[in-house]
Amino acid sequence: MKPVELAQRLAARERPAGRPVMKQRWSRLLFLHWRIDPDLLRPLLPAGLHLDLHEGEAWLGVVPFLMERVRPVLMPAVPGLSWFLELNVRIYCHDDAGQPGVWFLSLDCNQPVAVELARRLFLLPYQHARMRYGGDLTATRYHCLRDGELDEAVYEYGPAGEVQEAEPGTLEFFLLERYVLFSVGRNGRLFSGKVNHPPYRWAPAKCDQWSTLPVKWDGLPEPQGRPESMLWVDHVDVHIFPLRRLALEM
Question: Which InterPro entries match (predicted)?
């Protein structure tokens, strides 16, 4: 497959046609990334998706954050349902047409209703977990323990520099500017779902404690050493669009 062109990456940020089905805010985001052997990741992708590389290298991400004001369009947020925590393990891919996006290996969440709805409506591998957080924007402490696991993943993080937007073509742009998720339904049918939000305003992250346990929970070897990229985002308001089936090239 040809590499994804920069114009295709920029086009992915445009608002999709049609109406969104949900609104939500993502806040206190921490993006941790490690370089990883592409041959380890390619078998994880279904037919019709291809590993997306930055300058020939593959990346694995662990992203803890807060989900806030989650609700269907035209409905108010509901206390106890619309605020919860999420932590995802992700890799980067594109479809046959070169549309770049995210393939989630897992999404831990402490809201049982959200887990079940996301599994059914967006066909995503959500996992039940016990999670909590504390601190403030400058120093967030975040805990995650997936159901059935013994050890807890802990993150302590905050901003460590000036807030900025990612420049097209940079590693930060490649890792952050993702507006398409891919998922698989029955009989291996491939779907894509789009989100729309302003470009992330990110800062370098100070991360005093981090964990690769969610990677291990997903059955992969844990990355070694410090994350090679650590980025922090205050918040972003997001529109979620419905899934659409992808046609595979023959």
Answer: ADC_dom_sf, DUF2071
Domains of the chain, by residue range, sit at 6-245
Cα-based distances in Å from 84 to 25, 107, 211, 243 = 11, 13, 20, 22
C-alpha count within 13 angstroms, C-beta hemisphere, residue 71: 13
In tens, the pLDDT along 156-175 reads 999 999 999 999 999 999 99
Compute the distance between CA of residue 168 and CA of residue 174 in angstroms, rounded to an integer.
Answer: 8
| Cβ atoms of residues 32 and 223 within 8 Å | no
Q: Residue 54 pLDDT more than 60?
A: yes
Whole-angstrom CA distances from 230 to 12, 34, 64, 242, 244 are: 23, 9, 12, 30, 32
Contacts of 115 (CB under 8 A, 6+ apart): 109, 126, 127, 128
Model confidence at 1, pLDDT cuts 50, 70, 90, reads low
Give the tens place of pLDDT for each residue, 55-93. Answer: 999 999 999 999 999 999 989 999 989 999 999 999 999
The CATH superfamily assigned to 6-245 is: Acetoacetate decarboxylase-like (2.40.400.10)
Angle 188-239-131 from CA coordinates, rounded to 5°: 75
**Is-contact 22 71, C-beta < 8 A?**
yes
- pLDDT for 249: 57
